[in-house]
Amino acid sequence: MNMTLRIRLVILLLSLVSVSTNASASADVELRDIYLEVNAQNLREGFYTYNNLCRLCHNLKYIKYSNLSDVGLSKHEIDVLRGTNGVSDTLAASMPPSVANQAFGKVPPDLSLMAKARKNGTHYIYTLLTSYYEKSEAVYDNHLFQGIRMPDIFEYSVTENPKDKELIDKRVQQVALFLEWAADPKRDERKSMGVFVIAYLMVLTLLLFFLKRRIWANLQ
């Protein structure tokens, strides 16, 4: 599907969505739990779901192409994805901002820190993407965010086959986990470094303790 057709498809979907200038999150909807593990496979699949669906409208301005090796992409895969972009370039939305502004009334938000923007952000994203419903004939809304302007891009609300719905549910969880990683891509590295630093300080403290005892023993 070429870019022009994808953009037209999103604009067409928007015509089926109930648009409200006073959209707001509902505190009455209980956030759903994610049962998938945070591992390389789920992060990788989550990225490809973001790249194929979410990236049409949403940037990841704090994630570079080079960061994608951390979710299991090979150098060849990254080179294919980036095309003429540099490895240090960030992931920009496919839809130009002017077109997005015309379609949505504003430019869709960057998703880099979305998992941190709300409490239990990863569960919020998962719940949001699986909370669409048909408000009236051919008009759709979202239980968690009434008046949302984003269409049900996963088609969760109109999928009736249980196996298909289960597959969509898994894909939504994977993209939520990927966005959790994107909000803090160096978290695991930082935790590992923290363990090393704490171990170093403990050894240093022990050495200084014995040094202190030896010095005071000579002074007595």
How do the helices and strands line up, and which of them pair or pack?
Layout: H1 3-14, E1 24-25, H2 40-52, E2 60-64, H3 75-82, E3 90-91, H4 97-104, H5 114-117, H6 121-129, E4 132-136, E5 139-142, E6 145-146, H7 162-183, H8 187-219
Antiparallel strand pairs: 1-6, 2-3, 4-5
Helix pairs in contact: 2-7, 6-7
Brief rundown of the structure:
The protein has a two-stranded antiparallel ribbon. It contains 8 helices and 6 strands. The chain is mainly α and 220 residues long.
Word description of this protein:
With 220 residues, the chain is mainly α. It is built from 8 helices and 6 strands, in the order H-E-H-E-H-E-H-H-H-E-E-E-H-H. It has helices at 3-14, 40-52, 75-82, 97-104, 114-117, 121-129, 162-183, 187-219; strands at residues 24-25, 60-64, 90-91, 132-136, 139-142, 145-146. Strands 1-6 form a two-stranded antiparallel ribbon. A two-stranded antiparallel ribbon has the order 2-3. The model is unreliable at 11-22 (pLDDT under 50).
Rg value: 23 Å
Number of strands: 6
**The CATH architecture of the largest domain:** Orthogonal Bundle
- Average per-residue pLDDT, rounded, comes to 84
Structural class: mainly alpha
Keyword list:
about 220 residues, mainly alpha, 2 domains, two-stranded antiparallel ribbon, 8 helices
